[in-house]
Fold this sequence. Notes:
Blueprint: H1 3-14, H2 22-33, H3 39-58, E1 64-66, E2 69-71, H4 73-100, H5 130-133
Antiparallel strand pairs: 1-2
Helix pairs in contact: 1-2, 2-3, 3-4
Amino acid sequence: xxxxxxxxxxxxxxxxPDGVLAPQITAFWNVYQGMxxxxxxxxxxxxxxxxxxxxxxxxxxxxxxxDDLKFSAGEYFKNLDAMYADTNAEIARWEKILRxxxxxxxxxxxxxxxxPNPSSDPQSITAESAIVRGDPYGDMLTPSGLPx
Length: 148
């Protein structure tokens, strides 16, 4: 996807009756693209911002009637509000998919240390001692492995 393609697609989906939307879509696309997000999320974020711009331009309109023709600005705002909610739901769905597919950290331990046998001498306790590491069995076993 490119900024030009996205601008054309969003204006086709949302309409741009006042011409306020088209010049700003490329700027939104560039901001979100610079964040390193996948193109689908960049598109959805851009679409959400475009809907907000249209909502802002519609908020000042009033409903009126001329002869047999009725102009209802409130209905247009309700439609934009529903599109905004749908777009937010789609963003949440894509973000959930991306978080789930992020993968796990896998590796191999490079070094291991042996577990020193516990000692009754407090001077012999080191950082690797079971009692320091929080071993649940602590020094309950003697060096021979038999209970004291």
